[in-house]
């Protein structure tokens, strides 16, 4: 909250006066300049779930299937597939002309090894892995997966849009899934330029001339991924005022996530388009560390959940315009298929109830360490609100501020806080991406094999499988409702609300794609 007030003041000072509004500078017809949501510190989208890394992945890597805007899986690298009558054997054939950025051909072995590494980290992939009996390359362009039981969502898991199955060379996919790959080599529409990568400043990509896009129109992460720009440069601009000035002056073409306070000012510029490209919205969450005190105690976790008032969090990050955010006291966010109302009994928004619950929980003053970014306006203020809230209910709180890159590195630690660990972090993600009981790491209970925070629940895992193999839609809905309530009761994750982002770009750009990522394909300058 305090940092948000500071941002307002800094923005007002920077943008005041006519000097802040400049003519659009001459723009290159061949280079797109983009300001991403955060600094890119991790380059491996399997190793981390950081959204900025996944967005980077879409430039560099391709996927076997893609999920279109209708939610249907479409072939991407795959030309065709065959499935046995009993659903327990799948054979996939790759399309012609697939080439990696190191000029080696994409082979079936690359796809299988990439799949093998990915299923170790991804919650949806882990369910698939449990059903795989064997997999093998039939030839260089064909591979087969044999299952112990029919897996009805096979194409959906391979097409997953958030935390996608990106294909990389076999030699890199052999890297331990808990470690980052050492090279960024894919077969996607753009090639990463390591010599120009400067964390905190710049990321550069060049069009991969050997890439052969599909003939279909693009739709989310499916269809023809046509790279019209020869070069894309990411400009890391953590200061919102600097990014706003750069966009207005034409120094950048596209700002992924403008600060909500700056939206009215951007709306006045005749040269800028503001657009909601992810119509499902983004959920904001608080994630607690279940491995270490005090949140290894479910009663302490519950005390925090009882106190959370989502309106405080949404106003802190998104401002007072309630048309762009909503409360959503449910781990199935508003607008998603399994949202079944506000679970007010589990989130009564009561500090008094939280104080009483904390007193009865056995909490003994253990330190709570909040790791929080200073360079991410959609996330940073969430930590400020939590800090004040936990102090108000009587907890011993330490606030550790750093850049977002440091936060996503530190959240990997499973050590006690005294040895560099953590207790709480906050983040946001696609509400649509978190709407599936098999893939949402907010509700899944995989423990040590799961997402940061390492919530463990055999019952949650059983409900995810019940949903996956349910006979019909009503049975799926029943399993999803039970899983969502269980995960909130256990305080696996605390939802903080859902909001819309209006991305902003120069009107000289056309072909902006809808979806949960800032896709680079289809864009061109007029």
TrEMBL record:
GO biological process annotation, one example: peptide transport
Gene Ontology MF, one: peptide transmembrane transporter activity
SUPFAM superfamilies associated with the record: Periplasmic binding protein-like II
One Pfam entry name: SBP_bac_5
Residue stretches making up the Solute-binding protein family domain: 73-447
Signal sequence bounds: 1-26
Keywords: Signal
The keyword Signal is assigned to this record: yes
Compartments it resides in: Periplasm
Coiled-coil positions: none
Keyword Isomerase: no
GO cellular component: ATP-binding cassette (ABC) transporter complex; outer membrane-bounded periplasmic space
Protein family (similarity comment): Belongs to the bacterial solute-binding protein 5 family.
Protein name, entry field: ABC transporter substrate-binding protein
């Amino acid at each position: 909250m305090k940092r948000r007030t500071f941002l307002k003041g800094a923005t007002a000072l920077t943008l005041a006066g006519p000097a802040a509004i400049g003519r659009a500078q001459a723009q290159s017809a061949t280079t797109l300049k983009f300001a991403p949501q955060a600094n890119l510190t991790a380059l491996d989208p399997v190793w981390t779930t950081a959204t900025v890394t996944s967005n980077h992945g879409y430039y560099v890597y391709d996927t076997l299937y893609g999920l279109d805007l209708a939610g249907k899986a479409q072939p991407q690298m795959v030309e065709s597939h065959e499935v046995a009558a009993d659903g327990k054997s799948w054979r996939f054939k790759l399309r012609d002309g697939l080439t990696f950025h190191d000029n080696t051909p994409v082979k079936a072995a690359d796809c299988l090894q990439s799949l093998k590494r990915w299923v170790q980290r991804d919650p949806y992939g882990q369910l698939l892995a449990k059903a795989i009996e064997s997999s093998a390359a039939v030839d260089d362009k064909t591979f087969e997966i044999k299952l112990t039981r029919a897996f009805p969502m096979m194409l959906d898991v391979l097409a997953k849009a958030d935390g996608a199955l990106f294909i990389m060379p076999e030699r890199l996919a052999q890297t331990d899934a808990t470690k980052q790959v050492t090279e960024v080599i894919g077969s996607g529409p753009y090639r990463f330029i390591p010599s120009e990568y400067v964390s905190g400043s710049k990321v550069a990509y060049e069009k991969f001339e050997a890439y052969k896009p599909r003939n279909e129109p693009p739709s989310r992460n499916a269809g023809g991924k046509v790279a019209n720009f020869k070069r894309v440069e990411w400009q890391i601009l953590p200061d919102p005022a600097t990014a706003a000035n750069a966009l207005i002056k034409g120094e950048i073409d596209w700002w992924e996530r403008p600060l909500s306070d700056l939206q009215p000012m951007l709306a006045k510029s005749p040269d800028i388009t503001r657009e909601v490209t992810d119509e499902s919205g983004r959920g904001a969450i608080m994630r607690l560390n279940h491995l270490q005190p005090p949140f290894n105690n479910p009663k302490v976790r519950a005390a925090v959940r009882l106190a959370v008032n989502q309106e405080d969090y949404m106003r802190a990050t998104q401002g007072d315009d309630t048309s762009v955010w909503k409360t959503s006291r449910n781990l199935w966010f508003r607008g998603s298929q399994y949202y079944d109302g506000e679970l007010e009994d589990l989130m009564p928004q009561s500090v008094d109830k939280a104080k009483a619950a904390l007193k009865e929980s056995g909490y003994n003053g253990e330190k709570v360490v909040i790791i929080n970014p200073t360079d991410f306006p959609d996330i940073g203020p969430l930590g400020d609100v939590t800090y004040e809230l936990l102090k108000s209910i009587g907890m011993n709180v330490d606030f550790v501020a750093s850049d977002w890159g440091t936060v996503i590195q530190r959240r990997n630690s499973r050590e006690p806080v005294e040895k560099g660990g953590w207790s709480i972090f906050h983040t946001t993600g696609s509400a649509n991406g978190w709407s599936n009981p098999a893939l949402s790491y907010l509700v899944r209970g995989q423990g040590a094999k799961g997402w940061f925070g390492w919530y463990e629940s055999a019952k949650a895992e059983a409900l995810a499988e019940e949903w996956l193999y349910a006979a019909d839609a009503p049975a799926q809905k029943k399993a999803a409702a039970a899983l969502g309530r269980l995960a909130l009761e256990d305080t696996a994750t605390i939802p903080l609300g859902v909001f819309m982002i209006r991305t902003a770009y120069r009107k000289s750009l056309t072909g902006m794609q809808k979806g949960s990522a800032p896709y680079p394909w289809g864009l061109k300058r007029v």
